[in-house]
Amino acid sequence: MTNRERMLAIMDGRSPDRIPWIPRLRIWHRANVMQGTLPKRFQGMSLREIEQGLGMGTPAREGRVFEKEQRGDVEITSRREGQSVISTYRTPAGTVWTRDQTSEELERVGVRGLEVEHMIKGPDDYAAVEYLETHTQYVPTYDAYLSYEAETGDDGYPLVATGDCPFHHFLQKLAGYQAGYYHLFDYPDKVEHLLRTMEEVERERLWPLVAEAPARLIGHGSHFDSSMTPPPLFCRYITPYYQDFSALLHARGKKLCLHADNDSRLILDHIRDAGYDMAETFTTAPQVTCTLEEARRAWGTAVIIWGGVPSVILEDAYGDEEFEAYMHNVFRTIAPGDAFMLGVADNVMPNARLDRLERITEMVEEWGYYPIDPGNIG
């Protein structure tokens, strides 16, 4: 089977010939190219050619089924201040602005900076943000997606990012977690009104477009965390939204995927009950408290895990024996191999050791064929 065929088989609840090995190599590749440290045998090769040379599939995360357009009477300007970019949004309902911060170290390895000041800073900012939300339009780009899927070919199957639920988008992007929770307590009416407005816009304009799109693997939602989106708030603000959205997707043969690069230990059941079919870049101990074993017990084969290799074990901070033992346990835990795709959570980072990536490819070839037999490992 090809990696595309393996992914589609797993999405359809069937068994592949072996587990797919599809990590995110882009950051490692970009950093080593920019620093002139790419191994000689890979110089002059594209990222896809390197993935193929290492026996990996491609994560195919660049496909899109729509573009967002900001409409209405909005003026958007940006200016640079040192290592910050300040973006200003002027609307008839007020003006809001954001600040993105980078550093020399991040720029040296091609990693984007972080938004350190968000649009919503106080109660007077809600009207402008609501204006921006209600004047956002989604324009389908189905032909571009189909071209991207064809370009991906047998190396994988596109995972299409389509946004986040209103509550988490508010917390993560519009206000920031700390201010967002203060506002939820101090200005509950403003927060709730904004969340209702955002959801109405998405249900009316975004959901039908995604439902009719030619893509089958739909990413929506990211970084849900046991601490920052704990069970009570997950149940109130996140579960109902995704239960409805997932039902719409499932009726059209699509799968709903979460970008699960956080500690999911306390919300495993909630992710399943919300209707998620896959957790991509699923992150496990030692980077977080959640273990692969806990996730398999909670989800069984109801939620496909794409991950299982914490990026830290690919670096020198983790000893060779520890690395080997960790990977042996991964293969024993996932046996016989249903509902699992091997990947690195979140990314293969710039300091990852190439020999360990190659060792995982060897393990997949040696132990990864279905059904995986724990007795043959190690």
Strand elements, count? 12
- CATH fold name of the domain at 3-70 and 135-163 and 213-376: TIM Barrel
**Helix/strand-derived class?**
alpha/beta
Q: Write down the CATH class of the domain at 3-70 and 135-163 and 213-376.
A: Alpha Beta
- Order of adjacent strands in the largest pleated sheet: 7-8-9-10-11-12
- Please mark out the parts with pLDDT under 50 across 5 or more consecutive residues, or reply none: none
* Sheet of most strands: 6 strands, parallel
From the alpha carbons, calculate the radius of gyration and give it in angstroms: 21 Å
- Give the helices and strands as they follow along the chain: HHHEEEEHEHEHEHHHEHEHEHEHEH
What is the helical fraction, as a range of percent? 40-55%
| Mean pLDDT score | 97
Strand proportion: 15-25%
CATH architecture label of the domain at 3-70 and 135-163 and 213-376: Alpha-Beta Barrel
How many helices? The count is: 14
Distance between the termini: 25 Å
Overall outline: globular
